[in-house]
UniProtKB/TrEMBL annotation, chain A:
One Pfam family per UniProt: BPD_transp_2
Family statement drawn from the similarity comment of this UniProt entry: Belongs to the binding-protein-dependent transport system permease family. LivHM subfamily.
Annotated membrane topology: Multi-pass membrane protein
Membrane-traversing stretches: 18-41, 61-81, 93-117, 137-158, 187-206, 226-249, 256-277
Keywords per UniProt: Amino-acid transport, Cell membrane, Membrane, Transmembrane, Transmembrane helix, Transport
Locations listed in the record: Cell membrane
Protein name listed in UniProt: Branched-chain amino acid ABC transporter permease
Principal subcellular localisation of the protein: membrane
Signal peptide annotation: none
TrEMBL record, chain B:
Protein name (Swiss-Prot/TrEMBL): ABC transporter ATP-binding protein
Keywords: ATP-binding, Nucleotide-binding, Transport
Domain called ABC transporter: residue spans: 5-236
Database matches in InterPro entries: AAA+_ATPase, ABC_AA/LPS_Transport, ABC_transporter-like_ATP-bd, P-loop_NTPase
CDD domains (alphabetical): ABC_Mj1267_LivG_branched
Signal peptide: none
Automatic annotation (TrEMBL), chain C:
Cell location: Cell membrane
Statement: the UniProt record of this protein carries the keyword Membrane: yes
Membrane-topology descriptor: Multi-pass membrane protein
Pfam families: BPD_transp_2 (PF02653)
Protein name as catalogued: Branched-chain amino acid ABC transporter permease
Native species: Marivita lacus
Segments traversing the membrane: 30-48, 60-79, 86-104, 110-132, 139-157, 200-219, 246-266, 272-292, 299-318, 324-350
Nucleus as UniProt keyword: no
Entry keyword set: Cell membrane, Membrane, Transmembrane, Transmembrane helix
Principal localisation: membrane
Length: 290, 239, 359
């Protein structure tokens, strides 16, 4: 019985970390994979989703609806940002990254000015379940299911929908897609919006478990970066296994040595992966040679 | 006469595409040799294998008497191989002079560097463009600049990948003269080339590459008369 | 003054000739006279202001080293590093730990300064080795370096417990370390402690001038030539027989050491250091200074940094969040309107006018 309990505890820990990595990196990975832009305002889109979700929930909307609202608002803001800034920098991807950092600063500090240093949050719903002598948050179990659903949904979207086919064509052969009459500008706009919406979704999903502060996005940044780097350029092939491996490492280290070592473990993994597999997991899985 | 380069059983595949299928090739010191073959034959890939940009699946590369198969690119350059790529590989934002400085400064400095740069500006006829950003040069001038840079590392073997692509007939002829000049100074030259008139101008012997293998090697007259070669270029041969 | 036509005979002359060159803007008597006037004005400044204001100006100078280092790494070698604050913070903490253990007598604070810079530079060397020898390129360099600094921040923020001490020095978690001695010069009779004020200001001004001129020499030397060539076309540089990864790693270590110098001086200046000095917001600031000034020219970087810092400082009267919003907007505008940097734009403009006047 004790063994079973421990196994469940480990699985829970792993699932929780896995869910966090997948949910927090999805938006970053979509934008990076499709446009080659690292969105340094990723954390701020997460914060946006969380703030909207919390406000909507406190205004009386049921939580799932509130979360969707958060995602939609973040997506809309993302499309606006794309229209006003990113679109002018397509031929200079490094500059567009810098620009997103400017946006990040404006958003964090702007929210601090307008809404103050914290906002009233919403409690974690669903209570907890008992397994043996320990209790586990049911909501976190729901988050694990959401992570799997998110992966499945993205897979369907990119591999089995018209949007996905055109989107992947646009990444691989932008000129060709352009010549075939694809409105590449609109594609990029939609992609950036989708990435922002996914970030907003992450914020909404985690809003009930976190303190609402303008800098809350930063909590997600390291984990999502690391997952994208380990995953490599092709996020659809790389991100999910990367999240699984990193979750294993992090959950293991956290269980044995505590939170901090979990994070240091992630960083060391990244550096080693980069040294051994320069193309990341996706490069390795696809068998790229030098 | 000794061989400066000896390649044995060189093989490289990218997934299903075999770009080098057991190449055996040798080049005698002081030669001026041309490598020809249809598009996609694996000529550029062969150069990249010689330069260490691709790691071969099998085979050895002996250069100047020693095995360089496992050396990194920059180490091979230091042993005396140099290259001008198919796509001009110059520093477009830097001036012509700076381009030459970067190429020569490793073994020259002060007055001798200056002398060498002047010599190369003479050689490429780029004196007037000394301070021009290299990206503003004409296509032909960019090719010459890159040849000058490649020569600057004082190679024993110079690889040239389609040096006359995009040049006018006049520029092409002048390039041929440059190469004869370099060869006369003792540099062995191996060039990939499509223009048969140019091949006749510079090469004594020619190797034909096809599907990553050596199809035939001989004098220019032999190659031109070879029925198989004509078929390869007309696309009817199956080997 | 050095004119570019003279052929340098001695070694020093040839080094001095490197003060001018294609990699740095500004040449000829007019430029050097302007530079001398600027330095003279900076040297005269403490005579016109009270000690507190001068101490504040010293604070601006502290950051210029990190900015110039980032200029070398990003502007010249083409590697976009988002995490210079990692080396800054590490060296800041190192200075604190070493001085709290060794004390300030016998000029040991200077030893601590040198050690802290060495530690920061060494850390940059290691990170650079893994990145460049692991063939990391482009945006991934930004991500890795940013991750490094954020993880260091998290690490230092959780060192609150009493078990986190190195010798005499408690790391103190989120609140950071404080109470370390300022730089102290050994002197006959009594040591001179350099609290923020004119004497610290002069020391820093001297260091800035030395580092600036030293970097000009380095950037116009053959090393600098190779760095800009790598930025333009790393593949070609490898094919000219250079070990590109070695050059990139060295440039990164130099940039890291400069950030470390800023970090150690910062700790000595304010006698405190906190984990947030390595956080996301802190990491953005060097990017802003260098981008706004102009990353491809060391002079523009230096001028831009000082101007932006002065603007930032005057805005913080209204609250640092307002200042940071303006900084973010400034970065956006620069990237969109003048990607070369505002100072570079202005210098090119002035240069053109100057030439027109002559002809
Ligand atoms: N890195 C690579 N990955 C996959 N295929 C490659 C790679 N490099 C070359 N090829 C393929 O190898 C073949 C030979 O190319 P190349 O050597 O450039 O030919 P050539 O220079 O003779 O025209 C081509 O079909 C090309 O598509
Ligand atoms: Mg070719």
């Amino acid at each position: 019985m004790d063994l079973l309990q421990n196994v469940f505890a480990m699985l829970y820990q792993f699932g929780d970390t896995f869910a966090f990595l997948v949910i927090s990196c999805a938006g970053l990975a979509v934008i990076f994979g499709m446009m080659g832009v690292i969105n340094l305002a990723h954390g701020e889109f997460i914060m946006c989703g969380a703030y909207v979700t919390a406000s909507a929930a406190r205004a009386g909307l049921p939580l799932p609806v509130a979360i969707l609202t958060g995602a939609l608002v973040a997506g809309a803001v993302g499309m606006l940002v794309e229209r006003m800034v990113i679109r002018h920098l397509y031929h200079r991807p490094l500059d567009s990254i810098i620009a997103t950092w400017g946006i990040s600063l404006i958003a964090t500090q702007g929210v601090l000015i307008v809404l103050g240093s914290t906002m009233q949050g919403i409690g974690t719903p669903l209570g907890s379940i008992e397994v043996g002598s320990r209790s586990y948050s049911l909501y976190r179990l729901v988050l694990m299911v959401c992570a799997l659903g998110l992966l499945g949904g993205l897979y369907l979207l990119f591999y089995h929908s018209r949007f996905g086919v055109i989107a992947r064509a646009t990444i691989q052969k932008p000129h060709m897609a352009h010549a075939l009459g694809v409105n590449t500008g609109r594609m990029y706009g939609l992609t950036f919006g989708l990435g922002a919406a996914l970030a907003g979704l992450a914020g909404g999903l985690y809003a009930p478990t976190m303190t609402m502060v303008p800098t809350m996005g930063a909590t997600f940044i390291v984990e999502s970066f690391v997952t994208v780097v380990v995953g490599g350029a092709d996020i659809f092939v790389g991100a999910a296994p990367a999240a699984a491996i990193l979750a294993l490492i992090k959950a293991g280290l956290t269980a044995w040595y505590g939170q901090l070592f979990g994070q240091i473990g992630l960083l060391v993994t990244v550096i080693l992966v980069i040294r051994i597999l320069p193309g990341g997991l996706s490069g390795w899985l696809k068998g790229t040679t030098r | 006469m000794t061989d400066i380069l000896r390649v044995q059983g060189l093989r490289k595949a990218f997934g299903g595409v075999v770009v080098a299928n057991g190449i055996d090739f040798s080049l005698s010191t002081g030669a001026m040799h041309c490598l020809i073959g249809p598009n996609g034959a694996g000529k550029s890939s062969f150069f990249r294998l010689l330069l260490g940009e691709h790691a071969p699946d099998a085979g050895t590369i002996i250069f100047d008497g020693s095995d360089i198969t496992n050396l990194r690119s920059f180490q091979r350059i230091r042993r005396g191989i140099s290259v001008k790529f198919q796509v001009p590989g110059i520093f477009k934002a830097l001036s012509v002079r700076q381009n030459l400085e970067v190429a020569f400064q490793d073994h020259l400095n002060g007055q001798s560097l200056n002398t060498k740069i002047h010599e190369m500006l003479d050689f490429t006829d780029l004196h007037a463009e000394e301070t021009t950003p290299a990206g503003n040069l004409s296509h032909g001038q960019q090719q010459w600049l890159e040849i000058a840079m490649a020569v600057g590392v004082e190679p024993k073997l110079l690889l040239l990948d389609e040096p006359t692509a995009g040049m006018s007939p006049d520029e092409t002829r002048k390039t041929g003269e440059m190469l004869h000049d370099l060869n006369a100074r003792g540099i062995t030259i191996l060039a990939v080339e499509h223009d048969m008139a140019f091949v006749e101008q510079i090469a004594r012997r020619v190797t034909v590459l096809h599907f990553g293998s050596i199809f035939v090697e001989g004098t220019i007259a032999e190659i031109i008369d070879h029925p198989g070669v004509q078929e390869i270029y007309l696309g009817t041969a199956d080997v | 003054m050095i004119s570019s036509e003279t052929t340098p005979r001695s070694r020093t002359r040839s080094l001095l000739a490197r003060l001018e060159g294609p990699q740095t803007m500004g040449r000829g008597p007019a430029f050097w006279i302007a530079a001398a006037v600027a330095i003279a004005a900076a040297a005269a400044y403490p005579l016109t202001a009270d000690a507190w204001t001068v101490g504040n100006a010293a604070y601006f100078l502290i950051w210029t080293f990190m900015a110039m280092g980032l200029g070398v790494v990003w502007g010249y070698a083409g590697a976009l590093s988002f995490g210079q604050t990692a080396f800054f913070g590490l060296a800041g903490y190192a200075y604190g730990v070493i001085t709290l253990n060794l004390g300030a007598a016998y000029g040991l604070t200077l030893v601590a300064l040198v050690l802290a810079v060495a530690i920061g530079g060494l850390f940059a060397l290691v990170i650079g080795y893994f990145m460049f020898y692991g063939r990391i390129q482009g945006v991934f360099i930004g991500i890795v370096t940013l991750s490094v600094t954020l993880v260091l921040e998290t690490f230092m923020a959780q060192t609150a417990g009493p078990q986190w001490r190195i010798g005499e020095a408690r790391l103190n978690g989120f609140n950071g370390m404080s109470g370390m001695p300022p730089l102290t010069l050994p002197w006959v009779g009594e040591d001179i402690a350099l609290y923020p004020g004119p004497s610290l200001y002069y020391l820093l001004l001297g260091l800035v001038v030395i580092c600036y001129l030293g970097l000009r020499i380095m950037l116009n030397s053959s090393f600098g030539n190779v760095l800009v060539a790598i930025r333009e076309n790393p593949h070609r540089v490898g094919m000219l027989g250079y070990d590109v990864r070695l050059y990139q790693t060295l440039a990164f270590a130099i940039g890291g050491a400069f950030a470390a110098l800023s970090g150690a001086l910062y700790t000595a200046w304010g006698q405190y250091i906190t984990p947030s000095s390595m956080g996301l917001t802190s990491a953005a600031l060097p990017i802003i200074w260098v981008a706004v000034g102009g990353r491809r020219d060391i002079t523009a970087t230096l001028i831009g940094t000082i101007v932006v810092l002065a603007g930032f400082q005057s805005l913080t009267i209204y609250g640092s969040q307002y200042a940071l919003v303006v900084m973010g907007a400034l970065l956006l505008v620069t990237v969109l309107v003048a990607p070369q940097g505002l100072v570079v734009g202005a210098m090119t403009f002035l240069g053109r006018i100057f030439k027109k006047d002559k002809s």
